[in-house]
Amino acid sequence: MSTALQAAFGSWSLPVPVTLALCLVAVIYLAGWIRLRRALPKALGIWQLVAFLCGIASIWLAIGSPLAALDDDLLFVHMIQHVLLMLVAPAFILLGSPAMPLLHGFSKRLARDLLGPILRQPLLQWLGRTLTHPLFCWLAAVVALLGWHFPAFFELGLRSESWHEVEHACFLVSGFLFWWPVVQPWPSVARWPRWCIPLYLFMATLPCDALSAFLTFCGRVVYPSYLSASPPFQISPLVDQETAGALMWTCATFIYLIPAVIITVQLLSPPATQAAEQTQAESHRTGQGLPAGAEVA
Prior knowledge:
Layout: H1 3-10, H2 16-39, H3 46-63, H4 75-95, H5 99-105, H6 108-119, H7 122-131, H8 134-148, H9 151-159, H10 161-183, H11 196-217, H12 237-268, H13 272-287
């Protein structure tokens, strides 16, 4: 291990508050998931538990693991953090259908007497409807992505630990907002037709592609702090920046492409009930000795 790498990992210390908070959320979710599974075995699957825990682990990996010790020296590590916080963790957590397990993770009295009245407040419900509108979600993600990669703001996050935490919080919150219309977790209601979501995802790739192309092909180091950094590997600041740009382009393209393909296939596939009725009709015709597709008078 190089001296610079040893120094980077030596400067890392376990962020106890963040780690405890993430563990607490995971425990509350697990308790609620177990209660729901006992009452309604088919309400939640194991895959939803795994997805939620993967999302929690992704947050810790980005801001609590030794990976965080390298983000001041390597831009591509900083980019990995952004991908985890904005693209990976929120998607996994929302796929875990967090609302019901988290509510059931608390005591019934606390959920009924405290959380219930708060969540039913008209102002809070109006705010939730406004913030989860697909157009607002898309704009919030784009503004967070491009804004924090503007050199002045990016350098501010590198120089100030407090602003660095604000940056991470912005990426995480905007990630939740962005994925909300795509995953549409219970009990939310879709605001746009489902066929709009592949277009929504495609449009999200455009600012990512523009930023990643700029970082990869501009031919100069955009963020001056990395010129004076001591990277743990034999990598120049420009190559580090090009690697970060390529990483952003690759990750964003594939992460957005996967749900777009899944949703498109679902839209083009016949409904389950229609498919079942068609299969049953074909079986009936075959039993009568009729060729498939023939009609019974």
